Amino acid sequence: MEAREFTLLHMRGRYSYSVASLSWFERKAAAVFYAAPPSATMDEALVDFLAAEEEKPEWIENLIYIVRIYYAKNDKENTKKYCNKLLALTPTDEDERDRLDEARKILAKC
């Protein structure tokens, strides 16, 4: 994969994030359909999101996933860092405004 392919990095990060977020029940249900259920970790997702961030800084959609992972890992320092980075940006649509609202709520919990 070309390093410049930030959208592919982001999509692979979202896949890893989704798989890592599966509940025990969801994993067992997936095992019915697959020989081995898909596996991924938050750390794998984070690597991809951070690589996408290097290629396309200030992408709100990508930054919120970085915030979510650091928050899930209880890494308050990086959660605050990326929340503040997100909150310094200007949203261009309703989805981006929602992401900034989510970042504000997460930041308030740190």
UniProtKB/TrEMBL annotation:
Pfam families: RMD1-3 (PF21033). InterPro entries: RMD1-3_a_helical_rpt, TPR-like_helical_dom_sf. GO terms for cellular component: mitochondrion; mitotic spindle pole; spindle microtubule. Gene3D superfamilies: Tetratricopeptide repeat domain. SUPFAM superfamilies: TPR-like. One of its GO terms (molecular function) is microtubule binding. This is Tetratricopeptide repeat protein. It comes from Cylicostephanus goldi.
